TrEMBL record:
Entries under HAMAP family matching the protein: Lys_tRNA_synth_class2 (MF_00252)
CDD domains the record matches: LysRS_N
Stated name of the protein: Lysine--tRNA ligase
EC number per UniProt: 6.1.1.6
Family per record: Belongs to the class-II aminoacyl-tRNA synthetase family.
Region Disordered, residue ranges: 1-24
Entry GO terms, CC: cytosol
Listed Low complexity bias regions: 1-13
Co-factor requirement: Mg(2+)
GO biological process annotation, one example: lysyl-tRNA aminoacylation
Cofactor annotation comment: Binds 3 Mg(2+) ions per subunit.
Keywords attached to this entry: Aminoacyl-tRNA synthetase, ATP-binding, Cytoplasm, Ligase, Magnesium, Metal-binding, Nucleotide-binding, Protein biosynthesis
Assembly mode: Homodimer.
């Protein structure tokens, strides 16, 4: 008696013609099964346990031993070897756990064995009932006394022992999940991180809410929106670019600690750190500020690392270890830019001088003003040097229209961006709650929009009216969930999204 094992040499992927031929053969098998009264897609099969549970309970069995327990299990066929009187099949559960099944002439009879050889293919979902044993080579197995196809696969699986192309992984994530352990791990990792975020918020007495994704006016971030049309209301609507303005309305209404985890949409480019559709966390805390919200954000991320990796030190996909522990660095935007460039740059540095530096360094800025030039120059001189988790503090007022002016430094606002692995992971603010100043900022944004800035915010009268009823001093933060997973795993954004948008 021998056991099933992976082939020593992985076969080449089938051509389109071969796939078409295999599909025709499998469709014929489906038809024949149905004609014989055997359902190719039964409504249920008598499963009594799972493959992981069998392994957990009986993994200790010594070679050539029997458990005395009969189980009914089901899984996807990922290996198949049909020999004379004994067939081997490897079943894989949804989490990737595998177990060997053995179908013998003595146990199932000649007719059943012949049907197994005729109808079962790689990729099929198969039910087996039989005793749990350990084979002569020590392979935990189920010696089947009954088998049944629980779902017939019409298309052949890709080779489960070789790498899928990135194109296949992105376009056919279901195949990626079947074949690649890392893809399955990402689903679990993301779920663990999300659960951890909600636990941390619950411990701090935050309430989770949901705000509109279809909005009559976009706002809450500098971004280009997706535009759609409502037939029912005969009006133009926008897919939200951020939930900020509605969450602040909730704080005005008395929900002092509020957060939301949901989808945002931005009609912009896609690359290794950007996706047009992405998951976003935003939170607001009455009587907090950008200092307290930074502490909250650090706790959220560190707790997520503990939930995923069991440590603040996470291991990325390439084997690199990254330490998210301890207190994170804090630097100022203007101070770090001055140090890195060797030129004193302050909130009062004229636009012409900043433009001259940008021209000399080859930094291009669309519709330049003081704030945009400072931020672009900072990215040019400083961003690439950040290794540890770092809060970059105190941004130009021109680029942060929803943020409170700094309490002691003229020309900047109390805002930070958090950089991890060299990319921006989160941003936090002392929120602007003065409706008069907020109106002035919106008017300035409207001027920029009129000048051709597609990312400028629109004047939102309803939001301003809410602020006029009084919003308490507050701290707020936003963090991309997909980017959080990038920081925890070292993977690109399309790997962290289960079904990424692909052109």
């Amino acid at each position: 008696m021998t056991d099933a094992s992976a082939p020593s040499t992985a076969p080449a992927e089938p051509t389109e013609e071969e796939v078409s031929e295999q599909k025709a053969v499998r469709l014929a098998k489906r038809e024949k099964l149905n004609e014989s009264g055997v359902e190719a897609y039964p409504v249920s099969v008598p499963v009594t346990t799972t493959i992981p549970a069998v392994r957990a309970k009986w993994g200790w069995l010594e070679a050539d031993a029997v458990s005395g327990e009969t189980v009914g299990i089901a899984g996807r066929v990922v290996f198949l070897r049909n020999t004379g009187k004994l067939c081997f099949v490897t079943l894989q559960s949804g989490d990737g756990t595998r177990i060997q099944g053995m179908i013998s002439l003595a146990a199932v009879g000649e007719e059943s064995l012949a049907a197994f050889k005729e109808f079962v293919d790689l990729g099929d979902h198969l039910f087996l009932s039989g005793e749990v044993i350990s084979s002569r080579r020590g392979e935990l197995s189920v010696m089947a006394t009954e088998w049944k196809i629980s779902s017939k696969a019409i298309l052949p699986l890709p080779n489960v022992y070789s790498e899928l192309s990135e194109e296949t992984r992105m376009r056919s994530r279901y195949l990626d999940l079947i074949v690649r352990e890392q893809a399955r791990d990402m689903v679990r990792t993301r779920a663990q991180a999300m659960a951890s975020l909600r636990r941390t918020f619950t411990e701090r007495e935050f309430l989770e809410v949901e705000t509109p994704m279809l909005q009559t006016m976009h706002g809450g971030a500098a971004a280009r929106p997706f535009v759609t049309h409502s037939n029912a209301f005969d009006t133009e609507l926008y897919l939200r670019i951020a939930p900020e303005l509605f969450l602040k309305r909730a704080v005005v209404g008395g929900i002092d600690r509020v957060f939301e985890i949901n989808r945002n949409f931005r009609n912009e480019g896609a690359d290794s750190t950007h996706s047009p559709e992405f998951a976003m966390l935003e939170a607001y805390e009455a009587y907090g500020d950008y200092t307290s919200i930074a502490e909250l954000t650090q706790s959220l991320i560190q707790n997520a690392a503990l939930a995923v990796a069991g440590s603040h030190v996470v291991t990325w996909a390439d084997g690199t270890e990254y330490d998210l522990g301890g207190e994170w660095d804090r630097i100022s935007m203007y101070g770090s830019l001055s140090e890195a460039s060797g030129i004193l740059i302050t909130p009062q540095t004229p636009v012409a001088e900043l433009q001259a530096i940008a021209d000399r360094e080859g930094v291009s800025v669309h519709l330049p003003n003081h704030g945009k030039l400072v931020e672009e120059l900072w990215e040019h001189f400083v961003k690439g040097s950040l290794v540890r988790p770092t809060f970059v503090l105190d941004f130009p007022v021109e680029t942060s229209p929803l943020t409170r002016a700094h309490r002691s430094i003229a020309g900047v606002v109390e805002k930070w961006d958090l950089y991890i692995r060299g990319f921006e992971l989160a941003t936090g603010y002392s929120e602007l709650v003065d409706p008069v100043i907020q109106r002035e900022r919106f008017v300035e944004q409207a001027k920029q929009a009129a000048a051709g800035d597609d990312e400028a915010m629109r004047l939102d009268e309803d939001f301003l009216r809410a602020l006029e009823f009084g919003m308490p001093p507050s701290g707020g933060m936003g963090m991309g969930i997909d980017r959080l997973l990038m920081a925890l795993t070292g993977l690109g954004i399309r790997e962290t999204i289960l079904f990424p948008l692909v052109k």
